[in-house]
Amino acid sequence: MYALIYAERDARRPEHFLGGDPHDRPMPMDYFVWAIVDETAAQRSVWVVDTGFGAEDARRRGRRLVRTTAEALAMIGIDAARVADVILTHLHYDHVGGFEQFPRARFHLQDREMAYATGRHMTHRLFSHAFTASHIADLVVEVHRSRVVFWDGDHEIAPGISVHLVGGHTAGLQVVRVHTASGWLVLASDASHYNENMESQRPFPVVVDVGAMVEGWATIGRLATRPELVVPGHDPEVLRRFPAAGSGLEGAAVRLDLGPTGMIL
């Protein structure tokens, strides 16, 4: 399992906690996509989680695009154009904006997320600002092309890989649970942007349901074998806590399945 950084932005602590934070100092944000590779199957199986965003979203929103999602995946030998399955944790611009880089893929999504992204909440800037409307419209077209696979709640979508509806950040946010050599690992995505959001019980301020977000942390805790196998969605610490995916990939790609510092317990 891999975490791959594709973009960055400068930010400060008060931006990352509901109600702000008394310590106004830098707290940068990293943007990741993830890959699950099963080398034990008769035929190598690859699942990608989320698709990142492209140059236009980076320009409009003031983000630094370090590399495209396809370039990030290529660093670990994955050709985005050949990927068959992509799990979308939710439909914010930074998680679905690169979907055109996966021309052969099916996109796995919660029913509730599509309903949220196309429903009445989107008439309010408070909720719609983190979506790019054209991404949602394009994905609706892919629904009619039978390229979107919908799930209603928790489901094992492949051996050792399951999705779990937690909501909170968005109405249909799903986390991904994967069985690894280190135990059950949970890709929390934006259920918790940073480890500190969960550890201090202070939600990230982009949220549709605070109660669901807090309850989601408890669910994630039950799903993971141990707390250090919960991977937050935007925390630069991920690149420091887990071992590099290979020589020359320090600070760009890490191996999550090896556990923090690369020690399998």
* Class of secondary structure makeup: alpha/beta
The whole-angstrom Rg is 17 Å
Strand content: 15-25%
Q: Encode the helix/strand succession as letters.
A: EEEHEHEHEHHHEEEEEHHEHE
Overall body shape = globular
Distance between the termini: 16 Å
Oligomer: single chain
Helix content estimate: 10-25%
Q: Mind explaining what this structure looks like?
A:
This protein is an alpha/beta fold. It has helices at residues 55-61, 69-74, 93-96, 111-117, 125-128, 133-144, 195-199, 210-223, 237-241; strands at residues 2-9, 29-38, 45-49, 64-65, 85-87, 106-110, 148-151, 155-158, 161-165, 174-180, 183-189, 230-232, 253-255. Strands 1, 2, 3, 4, 5, 6, 7 and 13 form an eight-stranded mixed beta sheet that branches.
Label this structure with key terms.
265 residues; alpha/beta; 5-stranded mixed β-sheet; 24% helix; globular
Concise account of the structure shown:
By secondary structure, the protein is of the alpha/beta class. Helix content is 24%, strand content 25%.
List the helices and strands and how they pair.
Elements: E1 2-9, E2 29-38, E3 45-49, H1 55-61, E4 64-65, H2 69-74, E5 85-87, H3 93-96, E6 106-110, H4 111-117, H5 125-128, H6 133-144, E7 148-151, E8 155-158, E9 161-165, E10 174-180, E11 183-189, H7 195-199, H8 210-223, E12 230-232, H9 237-241, E13 253-255
Parallel strand pairs: 3-5, 5-6, 6-7, 11-12
Antiparallel strand pairs: 1-2, 1-4, 1-13, 2-3, 8-9, 9-10, 10-11
